[in-house]
Design brief:
The protein is mainly β. It folds into 2 domains: 7-280, Jelly Rolls; 283-421, Sandwich (Jelly Rolls). The chain is 3% helix and 37% strand. The chain contains 2 helices and 28 strands. It has helices at residues 376-384, 411-416; strands spanning 7-9, 15-18, 41-46, 59-64, 75-77, 96-98, 117-125, 130-139, 146-150, 153-161, 164-168, 171-175, 179-183, 189-193, 197-205, 228-231, 239-250, 253-261, 266-271, 276-279, 300-305, 312-319, 322-324, 341-348, 363-366, 390-392, 397-403, 408-409. The strands form 6 sheets. The protein has a 9-stranded antiparallel β-sheet. The protein has a 6-stranded antiparallel β-sheet with strand order 6-25-24-27-22-21, with no helix packed on it. Strand 7 (117-125) and strand 8 form a beta hairpin. The structure holds 2-(3,6-dihydroxyphenyl)acetic acid and fe (ii) ion. Residues 296, 333, 336, 338, 342, 353, 366, 372, 400 line the site of 2-(3,6-dihydroxyphenyl)acetic acid.
Length: 446
């Protein structure tokens, strides 16, 4: 049993779980008995093509009171601020930064997780299963008799303010800021919130998140598999007289169908296709202990690989609290231009390259090849700093969604949201030339 409830531990394992109220509800020795224990229905949820190699084959068997198909037809509903149209507004290669995205007040308007989804940027194509979207969720109310499932891709959810109680077909997960969860394609879920709540979502189309390979690091380190937690089976046999609404995100649009019962009626399940959560505190950071600033890929928690070796559709990278010990080194992030797109968010604290301006609940986007790096203040301080061992980012958690796709910002992100920081570029304006042609590099070989 893990802290905060019951979970099964391990990444990508074959698991099996029965609600303790129904012992023996998992069929033994086969998936489709003529009649299932407790007269349940058997239903397979496939997360990969049937024919995928074993290493990438994902599916789970759900034993439920009614099959998912027991619903009225889906009808199109307003998709609010969700979009997959990457041409809503013209492209903008500038360094972009957003102030904290404001959460609507419950006293003014009740907004739940689904109606509070706002697409900020993305690229690629849902129908060809290649691409991603980054959404911000801003909500103040629980999803009441409403659940969502996403036909388009997987959601990696990063809560920043407020806890999420997530009901899924596999069981319940409680998620606090500094934890993340992944709800994979097709899984029905409903979210209860307890206050004005905010967070970030990385949605990837057509791929699933994996742990990065460790190469010479060895068999252990970074996000360790045992720290990923999977819910245990939990069901409710609840009739919903007015009708329960199942919402489906399909081709980037929203559809709703009514059904008479709660969808969380799975009594037992087994398989390797499940939702899971992970506490970022458990990340075992590896970094430079001699000199120089290592590339941020050392902090990859999860990766959604493209078909090109070493190139991700998206990586989820964190900047956790740690020791900085590198000698003769400018320790903060270096100035750089990256062929990848870098979206950053801040869960708490201050990011090491920008003490001010980049705030918890805000974000930044440095697009492909757009120059960026520490602000002028950070440069001055770090160039003069005495290089003693020091704690970096204590009490802080910043993260990056890094993508090989060139991300387009939505109309909401660039025009309508009103949180764009028009003055971002000014943080680099005080940078001055320190060029002194006659001096020698004090730390170099000659
Ligand atoms: O731009 C950023 O702040 C993210 C980042 C951090 C780092 O340590 C090195 C490269 C990089 O893109
Ligand atoms: Fe960067």
């Amino acid at each position: 049993m893990a802290k905060g409830g019951k979970y099964i531990s391990g990444f990508g394992n074959e698991c099996a779980s029965e609600d303790p109220r129904c012992p023996g509800s998992l069929p033994e020795g086969q998936n489709n008995p003529q009649v299932c224990p407790y007269n349940l229905y058997a239903e397979q949820l496939s997360g990969s093509a049937f024919t995928c190699p074993r290493s990438t084959n994902k599916r789970s068997w759900l034993y439920r009171i009614l099959p998912s198909v027991s619903h009225k037809p889906f009808e199109s509903i307003d998709r609010g601020h969700i979009t997959h149209n990457w041409d809503e507004v013209g492209s903008d290669p500038n360094q972009l930064r957003w102030k904290p995205f404001e959460i609507p007040k419950a006293s003014q308007k009740k907004v739940d997780f689904v109606s509070g989804l706002h697409t900020l940027c993305g690229a690629g194509d849902i129908r060809s299963n290649n691409g991603l979207a980054i959404h911000i969720f801003l909500c103040n109310s629980s999803m009441e008799n409403r659940c969502l499932y996403n036909s388009d891709g997987d959601f990696l959810i990063v809560p920043q303010k407020g806890k999420l109680l997530i009901y899924t077909e596999f069981g319940k997960m409680l998620l606090q800021p500094n934890e993340i969860c992944v709800i994979q394609r097709g899984m029905r879920f409903s979210i209860d919130v307890f206050e004005e709540t905010r967070g970030y979502i990385l949605e990837v189309y057509g791929v699933h998140f994996e742990l990065p390979d460790l190469g010479p690091i060895g068999a252990n380190g970074l996000a360790n598999p045992r720290d990923f937690l999977i819910p245990v089976a939990w069901y409710e046999d609840r009739q919903v007289p007015g009708g329960y609404t199942v919402i489906n995100k399909y081709h980037g649009n929203l559809f709703a169908a009514k059904q008479e019962v709660s969808p969380f009626n799975v009594v037992a399940w087994h398989g390797n296709y499940t939702p899971y959560k992970y506490n970022l505190e458990n990340f075992m950071a590896i970094n430079a202990v001699a000199f120089d600033h290592a590339d941020p890929s050392i902090f990859t928690v999860l990766t959604a690989k493209s078909v090109r070796p070493g190139v991700a559709i998206a990586d989820f990278v964190i900047f956790p609290p740690r020791w900085g010990v590198a000698d003769k080194t400018f320790r903060p992030p270096y100035y750089h231009r990256n062929c990848m797109s870098e979206f950053m968010g801040l869960i708490k604290g201050h990011y090491e390259a920008k003490q001010d301006g980049f705030m918890p609940g805000g974000g930044s986007l440095h697009s492909a090849m757009t120059p960026h790096g520490p602000d002028a203040d950070c440069f001055e301080k770090a160039s003069m700093a005495k290089l003693v061992p020091e704690r970096i980012a204590d009490g802080t958690m910043a993260f990056m969604f890094e993508s090989s796709l060139s991300l387009a910002v939505t109309k909401w992100g660039l025009k309508t949201c009103s949180f764009l920081d028009e003055n971002y570029y000014k943080c680099w304006e005080p940078l001055r030339s320190h060029f002194t042609p006659k001096s020698r590099n004090p730390t170099g070989p000659n």
